[in-house]
Amino acid sequence: MGEQLACWLYHKLETMQRKPDKILYNNAVREDLQTLEPAGNTLERQRIYVIKKLSLCSMIVVCGVVMSVVLWIKDEMDTRIVDNQLIRNALGDGTKHIQLVAEDGEESYDIPINLSERCYSVEELTKMSEEAMSILETQILGENQSFDRIEYDMRFVDSVNGYPFTVEWRTDDTYMDDTGRLVQHTIAVPVLMELTAVLSCESFEIEYDISVRIFGKAVQPGASERLSAQISELEAASRLDQNMTLPSSLESRHIEWRYKRHYRGLLVLAMTPVLAIFIYYGKDRDLHKQVQEREEQMRMDYPEIVSALALLLGAGMTVPNAWNKIAKDYRKRREEGGGKRYAYEEMLLAVYEMESGTTQAKAYERFGRRCRIPSYNKLSTMLAQNLKKGAANLTLLLKAEASDAFEQRKHSARKQGEQAGTKLLVPMMMLLGITMVIIMVPAFQTYF
């Protein structure tokens, strides 16, 4: 489906009165394709390449639109509040922070609500406190064997796992502090002491006497503040209920409630064309990167090719025979599972041209132009001049060229190593920073 849509879109773009040449017939893309595959119909390969890109981008756009519609519908459904009922979190799950929108037919108000977790009834808390206390009796003993003989510090805890209580301990501080540590080292006669555990849910019981005098507000609250105050009162009054019922009116105006929309669908819809464009032109960058990798590979193979030619010519072979042997040996290695080498592919293409009737000099010149690298142009020029003018010292020239090429490859390898070291500098600095933090943080904690 994506390919059919891309073909249809390509046909529509091609039949436009003002054709988008940057999309359909990009010169840089055509040159890269021709560089990677010199033989064959470059325009047809470019058409297939553009259709593949359009297919990928069109699928991204379709998926993005479908996802945005689904998210829009889901957001719309998530904003509905059935019968003005809000569901609380269970005790221990924390407060639920909700953004609501109230509409009275004339205006809408953004009302943030902090819906506290559900509270238990007195009967439920009483039953759970008995269970928690039985657990505490075993936890606080510490190394002591029983409450009848306390010889070691006790281990007071301020909470019980699985229970919604905060524990406060009350002791006679003459003998034991509020953490369970024994105060006196020796006691002449054993002392009977009362130990009290106060289990509270939500807050400690602390009393403060503060005298205040209350006046009315100088600035009367607006509708949003009055509605928030009403919500706060209802929230506090319904702590024992599973659900909280929102008010259906404010003074004489009817209120309709909904959750605040997040507009995720619109965000996805807005990002979809950006992603499609990024991928479309990113494919061109990937193609050009392949061309750069081809050039680097050809530079690395150049010393071996020149050295092989010099060796075969020194052994008595002619230039065409040496050229054919190098190219066809590569073809045999490739058929046996070897990797593709672009320089040898160009040599093999030159062999095919010569076999089809192209003169040797012209084949060598076209080989140099297709390679698009100065060193290969120099090699093709040397071979062409050898055919036209003759060169008795061609073998010596090739040996010197091979020696220079190997030196260039060493220099290139050193340069790549330096670049790799530079790229590793940032990760190394990050690792150094992490190591310093690991060493210094414990040292500061120990000091302070």
List keywords for this structure.
single chain, mainly alpha, three-stranded antiparallel β-sheet, 9% strand
Word description of this protein:
- The protein is mostly helical and 448 residues long.
- Helices cover 58% and strands 9% of the residues.
- It contains 13 helices and 9 strands.
- The strands form 4 sheets. A 3-stranded antiparallel beta sheet has the order 3-2-9, with helices on one face.
- α8 (319-335) crosses α9.
- The longest helix is centred in the middle third of the chain and has 51 residues, at 264-314.
- It starts with a helix and ends with a helix.
- The model is unreliable at 203-219 (pLDDT under 50).
